[in-house]
């Protein structure tokens, strides 16, 4: 096989080694092009991984539904009627909409985002107090610092237990003090702390200055009856959240005599829209990075072609001698194309090594932080393989230009060259 021809490779490296400085300068264009390509792709991947980290713990297919005021009169009811949900609504929706995977009824002490004073040993904290089911943790995951989250036993026995946020802990406890098993007081009622959590630094729905107590305990302790504030819902993975959202609104509008045209009475927030927008952004960013990088790489490969054209002119006499001694145009063309491939591939590997080192440094600086969405900014094996193969393919195409120029040289004319 001609690729294993020892003499061919000796000639290739001898030719490239004649002028090392010029060879190095020729490679610089491809080196920098590969660095730019890999840095752009790696940074795009890093941002994508960073967003995944930022939103880790929040179900991407989740939905939040709450009651507002009607904007239209309907069936004898006046405009401006406040819609208040009941705990039975959760069971109705779960039964009638099989696409709902998790439904967690929620209720808050006071108005939405209302602040309640929580006491402990003379210390106070203005916190949000929520009545929840354990299922809420499947939608907005809490990172527990110590202890546990609410469980089924807490609900069934209506236990006076609570999980507090890290900010609440700082306001009510001394630094390093164990909070588990200690009591806090809310509206004159004592609750035992069973867990302390910190936020996931994602979409912070509840905040870190919050207190979670079992929903059933909330009903009895604060006399909320069968009232439900709002619902946190996760739908099945292959189901569009917007479809389930419409079904939920249709059922609730029918139950509470709300006009089908009333768009204000039922408030909702589709979390999947945020995730879809971010996914689309990162996809476009990766595509743009690849587009810019490839054209930069093309410019570097063209520079190699230009240098090879110059070397072909310089080697006119050599090529003429080889042709006179019986070298076929195919052999001459093959050598020049291989020279282009060797220069491009070697320069590309150097650029790849440098860019990987830069990305590793960036990852060590910012990859482990929670504030900047930049995690593991490395290129995948398929991305590198496609980039490298495309680079080699371009080098073959570009190398054909000086190769075709070389085989057009007539031996007799080449030998006349001084």
Topology of helices and strands:
Layout: H1 6-17, H2 20-54, E1 62-67, E2 85-86, H3 87-96, E3 100-108, E4 116-120, E5 123-132, E6 143-147, H4 152-157, E7 161-165, H5 166-172, E8 183-186, E9 189-198, E10 210-214, H6 215-221, E11 227-228, E12 230-235, H7 241-255, E13 266-270, H8 271-314, H9 316-324, H10 329-366, H11 381-407, H12 411-416
Parallel strand pairs: 5-10, 7-9
Antiparallel strand pairs: 1-12, 1-13, 2-11, 3-5, 3-12, 4-5, 4-8, 6-9, 7-10, 8-9
Helix pairs in contact: 1-10, 2-8, 2-10, 8-10, 8-11, 10-11
Which features would summarize this protein structure in a list?
MacB_PCD, single chain, transmembrane, ABC transporter permease, alpha+beta, six-stranded mixed β-barrel, ABC3_permease_C
Structure description:
Residues 291-409 form the ABC3 transporter permease C-terminal domain. It is found in: Cell membrane. By secondary structure, the chain is of the alpha+beta class. Helices cover 52% and strands 18% of the residues. The strands form two sheets. The protein has a six-stranded mixed beta barrel with strand order 4-5-10-7-9-8. The longest helix is centred in the last third of the chain and has 44 residues, at 271-314. It is elongated, with a radius of gyration of 34 Å.
């Amino acid at each position: 096989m001609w690729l294993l021809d020892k003499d061919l490779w000796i000639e290739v490296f001898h030719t490239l080694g004649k002028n090392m400085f010029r060879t190095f300068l020729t490679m610089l264009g491809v080196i920098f092009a590969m660095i730019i390509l890999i840095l752009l792709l790696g940074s795009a991947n890093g941002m994508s991984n960073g967003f995944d980290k930022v939103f880790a713990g929040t179900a991407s297919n989740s939905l939040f539904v709450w009651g507002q005021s009607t904007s239209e009169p309907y069936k004898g009811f006046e405009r401006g009627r406040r819609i208040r949900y009941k705990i039975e609504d959760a069971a109705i929706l779960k039964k009638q909409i099989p696409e709902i995977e998790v439904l967690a009824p929620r209720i808050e002490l006071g108005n939405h985002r209302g602040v309640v004073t929580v006491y402990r040993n003379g210390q106070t904290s203005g916190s949000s107090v929520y009545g929840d089911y354990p299922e809420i943790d499947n939608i907005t995951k809490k990172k527990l610092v110590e202890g546990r989250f609410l469980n089924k036993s807490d609900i069934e026995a209506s236990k006076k237990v609570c999980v507090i946020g890290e900010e609440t802990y700082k306001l009510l406890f001394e630094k390093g003090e164990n909070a588990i098993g200690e009591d806090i007081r809310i509206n004159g009622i004592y609750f035992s702390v069973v867990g302390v959590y910190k936020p996931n630094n994602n979409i912070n729905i509840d905040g870190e200055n919050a207190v979670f107590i079992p929903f059933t305990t909330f009903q009895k302790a604060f006399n909320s009856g069968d009232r439900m504030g709002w619902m946190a819902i996760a739908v099945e993975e292959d189901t569009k959240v917007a479809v389930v959202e419409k079904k939920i609104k249709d059922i609730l509008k029918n139950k509470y005599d709300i006009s089908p045209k009333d768009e204000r009475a039922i408030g909702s927030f589709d979390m999947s829209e945020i995730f879809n927008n971010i996914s689309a952004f990162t996809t476009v960013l990766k595509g743009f990075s690849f587009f810019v990088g490839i054209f930069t790489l093309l410019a570097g490969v063209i520079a190699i072609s230009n240098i090879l054209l110059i070397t072909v002119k310089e080697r006119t006499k050599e090529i003429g001698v080889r042709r006179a001694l019986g070298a076929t145009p195919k052999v001459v063309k093959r050598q020049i194309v291989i020279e282009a491939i060797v220069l491009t591939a070697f320069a590309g590997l150097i650029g790849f090594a440098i860019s990987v080192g830069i990305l590793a440094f960036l990852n060590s600086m910012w990859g482990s932080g929670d504030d900047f969405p930049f995690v593991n900014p490395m290129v995948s094996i398929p991305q590198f393989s496609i980039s490298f193969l495309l680079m080699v393919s371009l080098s073959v195409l570009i190398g054909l230009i000086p190769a075709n120029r070389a085989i057009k040289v007539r031996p007799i004319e080449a030998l006349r060259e001084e």
